[in-house]
Amino acid sequence: MARNAARPIVKVRSTAGTGYTYVTRKNRRNDPDRMVLRKYDPVARRHVEFREDR
């Protein structure tokens, strides 16, 4: 199966400054802006915002 160009793989980086990243997919048609997720940062040991890194 070919990968869908509408759902690219993106890295989301922690805003806590720890350098921790998650890798996920997003639908470019529905969410053309940069993705912001609230996830757990194990280095900071708390939930923080993760912003899409390009």
From TrEMBL:
Membership in a protein family: Belongs to the bacterial ribosomal protein bL33 family.
Listed PROSITE patterns: RIBOSOMAL_L33
Coiled-coil residue windows: none
Keywords tagged on the record: Ribonucleoprotein, Ribosomal protein
TM helices/strands, residue ranges: none
Matching InterPro entries: Ribosomal_bL33, Ribosomal_bL33_CS, Ribosomal_bL33_sf, Ribosomal_zn-bd
Gene: rpmG
A Pfam family this chain is assigned to: Ribosomal_L33
HAMAP family: Ribosomal_bL33 (MF_00294)
Species this chain originates from: Amycolatopsis cynarae
Keyword Hydrolase: no
A single cellular component GO annotation: ribosome
NCBIfam families assigned: PRK00595.1, rpmG_bact
Name of this chain's protein: Large ribosomal subunit protein bL33
